[in-house]
Amino acid sequence: MAIKSFKPTTPGRRQMTVLVSDVSKNPKGPKKLTKRLKQHAGRNHRGKITSYHRGGGSKRKYRIIDFKGDKIDIPATVTSIEYDPNRTANIALLTYTDGEKRYIIAPIGLKVGDKVINSAQAELKTGNRLQLSKIPTGFNIHNIELNIGRGGQIVRSAGTSAQVLGRDHNLVQIKLPSSSIITVDEHCMATIGEVSNPDHSNVKIGKAGRNRWMGRRPKVRGKAKNPCDHPHGGGEGGSSIGMKYPKTPWGAHALGVKTRKIKKYSDKRIIKSRKKK
User: Fold this and answer.
1) Which of 57, 118, 155, 221 could form a disulfide linkage to 129, CB 3.0–4.6 angstroms apart?
2) 129-131 and 189-192 strand pairing
3) DSSP conformational letter for 210
4) Domain total in the chain
5) Per-residue confidence at 154, pLDDT binned at 50, 70, 90?
6) Mean pLDDT on 160-188
């Protein structure tokens, strides 16, 4: 993939860049593998806004991705590599030998016509999915299960990959993109390779309207609000936030304050925490 820039014919075009790729932009996809995606504008079941700055945007259809990979020992052929508006990575449409079609997250290097398989005896090549016990040390993997049979939960965004570091009894040590090291049961599944679309992070949006297409509404600084709307609000002119710590709209500490639960269930997995920035 390449990043395309434009002549500065307008202020928005001056900074804007886009990805140029040969992936298919199928707006519908196979009917059985897509479903309606209702817009909620950041609201929960009570209609209360729980995610701010959401709303509008282009209509999308959700592509049903096979994160589990539970079709074991059945070869599949890559029919197409497609763009997915709901995620940063590209997706691949697989056609199995029994005629069934499924979507998976496309790794770098996977091409139309390639063969992939989910199997304990699978070859160690990009796109194949197998148990962590069968993957040698040093291999890059993605779409990793944390609980047996639950399906891939981590390392699924564009350009990411984890690395198998070693083994200890029935646990496999994995280095995540955040540089933290965790342990996972060796019977959990993972896919060989790095996730596609690594240039996604290098794209410059360029203008506010492009964010509106993606369902992002304008953000307002807390200090520009009234005191009744935010702890930073009020004051005459361009005043400071007027307190020792930055706060959220509900008065909790923000920016640099640790928010992880003290006794989180996943602490037992972590061998080394991510680097402090």
Assistant:
1) 118
2) antiparallel
3) H
4) 1
5) very high
6) 92
**The domain containing residue 84 runs over which residues?**
2-201
Within the chain, strands assigned E span 2-5, 17-20, 34-36, 61-63, 76-82, 91-96, 101-105, 115-116, 129-131, 140-142, 144-145, 152-154, 162-168, 171-175, 181-185, 189-192, 270-272
**Is 233 part of any domain?**
no
State the Cα–Cα distance between residues 229 and 15, nearest whole angstrom: 34
Q: Residue 172 is encoded by which pair of tokens?
A: 């496999």
Confidence of residue 260 (pLDDT cuts 50, 70, 90): confident
Decide if 219 is inside a domain: no
Helix H segments across 159-230?
A: 208-213
- Residue 255 lies inside a defined structural domain of this protein: no
pTM given for the model: 0.86
Residue 145 reports pLDDT greater than 60: yes
Is the model more confident about 102 or about 24?
Answer: 102
Number of H helices, E strands in the chain: 2, 17
Look at residue 246 and tell me if it is in a domain. Answer: no
Cα 114 to chain center, whole Å?
Answer: 24
How wide is the angle at C-alpha 185 spanned by C-alphas 149 and 102, nearest 5°? 30
User: pLDDT tens-digit profile of 26-80?
Assistant: 777 788 999 998 889 999 999 999 999 999 999 999 999 999 988 898 999 999 9
In the chain, alpha helices (H)? 11-15, 208-213
- Rounded to the nearest integer, the mean pLDDT of the chain is 90
Rounded Cα gap, residues 174 and 189, in angstroms: 13
